[in-house]
Design brief:
Blueprint (H helix, E strand, L loop, with lengths): L1 E8 L9 H12 L7 E5 L16 E6 L2 H6 L6 E5 L5 H7 L6 E5 L8 H10 L3 E7 L5 H7 L8 H9 L5 E10 L3 H11 L10 H10 L4 E10 L1
Parallel strand pairs: 1-7, 2-3, 2-5, 3-4, 5-6
Antiparallel strand pairs: 6-8, 7-8
């Protein structure tokens, strides 16, 4: 299990709240070396992955359960969007009607209701994979400072689960995103979606956390699972 690290500075005036997710998408695609022709993207969102693919392909199918995101996703004769939930076993019966040679998923599977079941369903598609999953190391210091339990699985838990289904590479990357002040930091948390819309603290507790948070950056930890 290889562990790397990266660092970025957050520029609030750019108005971008998906800085880390964009970096994750780029790295995830860097693991795809054979230019697959028929691609599935689980949790495709607004199209962060398809917009970064720089090779010719025959079909790209994006799946998401957020209709608003699917409306923003690029579409064409070779790009299809499916409204569906990767937690739903029935979805994979539909997907097996296609002939995919690669499954991608970037910054989505951390919200799986049962990651082992999702991995089992992905395995049933019998194709190569490149998956990026945020771990409990994301916002680690924030959780400790606020005495909150992390929402996500740890890298060790994800590693153990994926070993049951895949004989592939497993890499962990730690990112840091620096902010000018804690107000900008907490605005990012609220807007980015990385926290899963968690609202576990009162206004008073949030103010206390902002005053006591010891760092000028947030931590992110991502597990990459790829063929």
């Amino acid at each position: 299990m290889r562990i790397d690290s990266e660092f970025s500075k957050y520029a609030a005036h750019y108005g971008s709240y998906n800085v880390i997710q964009e970096k994750v998408a780029v790295k995830l695609l860097s693991h795809v070396n054979n230019k697959p022709k028929n691609i599935l993207d689980l949790g495709c969102g607004h199209g962060a992955l398809v917009e970064k693919i720089d090779w010719e392909y025959n079909r790209f199918v994006g799946v998401d359960f957020a209709k608003g995101m699917l409306e923003l996703h690029p579409k064409s004769k070779i790009i299809e969007c499916i409204y569906g939930d990767f937690n739903d076993d029935g979805l994979y019966k539909t997907l097996k009607q296609y002939n995919f040679d690669y499954v991608l998923s970037s910054s989505a599977l951390q919200w799986a209701q049962d990651l082992e079941k999702v991995f089992s369903n992905i395995k049933s598609l019998d194709t190569q994979i490149s998956l990026a999953i945020f771990t409990s190391g994301t916002f680690e210091t924030l959780h400790k400072t606020a005495s909150l339990e992390p929402l996500l699985l740890s890298k060790d838990e994800i590693y153990t689960i994926q070993k049951k289904y895949f004989d592939v590479n497993f890499e962990v990357v730690n990112y840091r995103l620096e902010f000018e002040n804690t107000r900008e930091m907490f605005r990012y948390i609220k807007k980015s979606g990385v926290s899963g819309s968690r609202n576990a603290l009162s206004f008073k507790e949030t103010k206390k956390l902002m005053d006591e948070y010891p760092l000028n950056y947030l931590e992110f930890e991502v597990a990459y699972i790829y063929s």
